[in-house]
Amino acid sequence: MTRNVDCVRYGAGQEGLERAPYPGELGQRILARVSRRAWNDWLAQQTMLINENRLSPVDPKARAFLQQQAEAYFFGDGSERPPGYSPPQA
Q1: DSSP letter for each residue of 6-32
Q2: CATH class of domain segment(s) 4-75
């Protein structure tokens, strides 16, 4: 059964996540307020941050940075772009 949320990025009536993507308070906030569509957008942003900043997901500092960026992406002013980043040309 699909669970709908009032998404912080796409508004009311959006399909929600099945479970919290992070432990703790941030994961619960994302579960309650972020749609599956917005989460997939974040995964693309997170992949770009990992690649452009050459982060290792097993590094605790990198994981903390990515959680901070997820918080900013959903509940703040947005996630940062790496210095010198230019989006791929279509």
Answers
A1: EETTTEEEEEBPSS-SSSHHHHHHHHH
A2: mainly alpha
Contact present, 70 and 22 (Cβ < 8 Å): yes
What's residue 89's pLDDT? 72
- Cross-strand bridge partners of residue 7: 11
List Cβ neighbours of 47 (8 Å cut-off, separation of 6 or more).
Answer: none
Which helix (H) or strand (E) is 5 found in, with range?
A: strand 4-7
State how far the Cα of 73 lies from the Cα of 79, in Å rounded to an integer: 5
**Per-residue pLDDT tens over the stretch 39-80:** 999 999 999 999 989 999 899 999 999 999 999 999 988 777
Q: Which value, to the nearest 10 degrees, does the dihedral of the CA atoms of residues 46, 51, 52, 57 take?
A: 70
CB-based contact 6:29 (threshold 8 Å): no
Q: What is the pLDDT of residue 81?
A: 73
